[in-house]
Amino acid sequence: MQTITAFLSADHRACDELLAVVEHALADGRWEPAQAAFERFRDGMLHHFSAEESLLFPRFEQSTGIYRGPTQVMRAEHLQMRQLLAAAAAALAARDVDDYSGNAETLLIMMQQHNVKEENVLYPMCDQRLAAELATLLAELQQEIAADQGLAP
């Protein structure tokens, strides 16, 4: 059976790949493809955050009774990344490559640090604490992320 760690880590990699597509398009001066790829990247990130915040984090908090721990830190980092996503989107719309690059670089560093914490600490804790409902929770996470990306029926 798949784990929360494996599923959400794979979604992290999918988002990373979309950001790389944006960077390649910008490096070639292809603004329209860069804009389209950025929109897919931003949507993927926002849907990932939403799935964690609406499904995973509340269940983990209920199971552990820990409300001011790792999930609080992750929510705060999600907020910071949402702000960076908005700033990068505005810079891209203005075709300001320097402003975009600064925001995107900060976002990438933050994503990398955030993902390490989730993949090595929080997700394994979720796999352990939520083992009894793992199949149901994974199905809900998959549905939420797929539906938000227009992939679900």
UniProtKB/TrEMBL annotation:
Annotated Gene3D superfamilies: nmb1532 protein domain like (1.20.120.520)
Residue span, Hemerythrin-like domain: 3-126
Top-level taxon in the UniProt lineage: Bacteria
A GO cellular-component term linked to this record: plasma membrane
Pfam families associated with the record: Hemerythrin
Stated name of the protein: Iron-sulfur cluster repair di-iron protein
Species for this entry: Candidatus Accumulibacter adjunctus
Lineage: Bacteria, Pseudomonadati, Pseudomonadota, Betaproteobacteria, Candidatus Accumulibacter
